[in-house]
Amino acid sequence: MRGLVRCLARALHAWLVLLVLLVASAGVQAQSRSVGDYPGRAIRVIVSFTTGGAADVTARVVGERLSELVRQPVVIENRAGGGGVLALDLLRNAAADGYTLGIASNSNATKPATMTKLPWDLAHDFAYIAIAVDATMVLVGNPDRVPARNLVELTNYMRLHPGQYTYGSCGVASTQQFAMEKYRFRTGAVATHVPYKGCAVATPEVLSGQIDLAMLALSNALQYIRAGKLHAYGVTTQARSTSAPEVPAFRESGVPELSDFVQDAWYGFFAPAGTPLPIIEFLASSIRQILATREVAARLHDVGLQPAFVGPEGTRQRMLGDVESFSRIAAAARIKAE
């Protein structure tokens, strides 16, 4: 009889443990899908860049999985033009309810560094959610127009023949222009800047030979580097990209002035200031969960983007730190967007 009681007790205990685990699991799953009634309808993501660029790819890859996670549509809205100023003003004026988000980028930080009048303030008008990816930048050349085989040869040629080459960037006061101007300021290399409305627009221009060189997001240039249609002179990150390990970093190029050269680019998400903190935290947690999946990491890696989650406060600090850094570069290289 006592043995039967002990067996029943053990069975009851095991059943209770299982029940607790099931309830806890259901709670975690429910929390991953929503917070309160949010989201109860479609979420709009404003992208201040053209389709096909690193920002657009980030928005679409993460947005697709976020839609699956929250069981609501995530609509990507490209609002390129004006250097992103107008798109951010649209976000600033949207309802702070979590249904309008924007793609944040340190390209936004170049605007306070180069413009005296802006309709928004990066320190006060936005609620930062997360950094999602690091986007490696790469200097490429059209091999039919630029014979230099490496960055040392290219730098020496541009010093001796100032202004002979043109270089394209992804826009006036873009992170790509800042990276190139930082390189030119340090080395004394001279090339004429030709800005485009996004990396996706600049890429075919260097492929066709309309311009000689371009500073691009690796995500735009990678397939053409692999095919031998563009020659890659170096990436601006501290280390080589795992998506293109054959391309050296600027700092290891052998150009003495570039031994400590680093210029990063990143993309993430933010919302209008005043968006409730539980929604911000829910979105940040969801993005972190999405970036941790092998499928998403592989999709990003294949186009030269690296998952690099940073939470809300870290994202805010990174943005404001980049404003200070870009302001120093702008002053030294005399970059102005106006």
Can you characterise this structure?
The protein has 338 residues and is of the alpha/beta class. The chain folds into 2 domains: 43-134 and 265-333, Bordetella uptake gene, domain 1 (D-Maltodextrin-Binding Protein, domain 2), CATH 3.40.190; 137-258, 3-Layer(aba) Sandwich (D-Maltodextrin-Binding Protein, domain 2). 44% of the residues lie in helices and 18% in strands. It has 11 helices and 11 strands. The protein has helices at residues 2-33, 54-70, 85-92, 110-114, 151-160, 175-187, 199-208, 218-226, 277-291, 294-302, 312-333; strands spanning 43-47, 74-78, 100-105, 126-135, 137-141, 166-169, 192-195, 213-217, 231-235, 266-272, 305-310. The strands form 2 sheets. It has a 6-stranded mixed sheet, with helices on both faces. Strands 7-6-8-5-9 form a 5-stranded mixed sheet, with helices on both faces. Helix 2 (54-70) crosses helix 9 and helix 6 packs across helix 11 (312-333). The chain is globular and about 65 Å long. The model is unreliable at 4-9 and 11-32 (pLDDT under 50).
